[in-house]
Amino acid sequence: MEICGINEVEIVNCRTERKKNMKVISKQRNSKMCIICGMDNPIGLKAQFYNMEDESVMTIFKYKEEHQSFPQRVHGGLIATMLDELGLRALWAKKSEDIFGVTLSMEVKYRKPVPYDETIIGKGLVKKETSKFIVIDTELFDKKGNLLANAEVKYIKLDVNKISKEVDPHEEMCYLIDDDIKEINFKNE
Length: 189
Known about the structure:
Layout: E1 10-12, E2 22-27, E3 48-52, E4 57-62, E5 68-70, E6 73-74, H1 76-94, E7 101-110, E8 119-129, E9 133-142, E10 147-157, H2 160-163, H3 169-172, E11 183-187
Parallel strand pairs: 1-11
Antiparallel strand pairs: 2-3, 2-11, 3-4, 4-8, 5-6, 7-10, 8-9, 9-10
């Protein structure tokens, strides 16, 4: 099965989880116009997100040439945007897509240049949660398992009507795209 132009995914030496064949439990919805997951956005990534057996969220995607800052490199702002997206989606993987929030702060570490037109794997995992706040670790890897960037993202939970008035989140997050991804493979070394 091909998704976002990617036929096969294999991560080597992934530092967050050294487990083979991590199972996909379910898939999250995509929005209309989000730069990361919007299916109607002509310059968006159209990234798909998977709820994993360890309560993390993962995505497999490719940045495009339009996302560059300099030839052969993705713009740091778009790298941070994906790390931020993985944050809330990690909460959805653990809880429910009915919970919303906004970013309070994010500390990003850029480890290596992120290329476009190459497979990138993202992962987000809730580190700490209270009734009002969430702290999430998010990471981006190349297909060999090299850590490219990571962030600690802090969110405050908010009712969706406090984020944007007169928006129905079920209408905006309207796409659920079926595919054959049942697991994401990690290799131990």
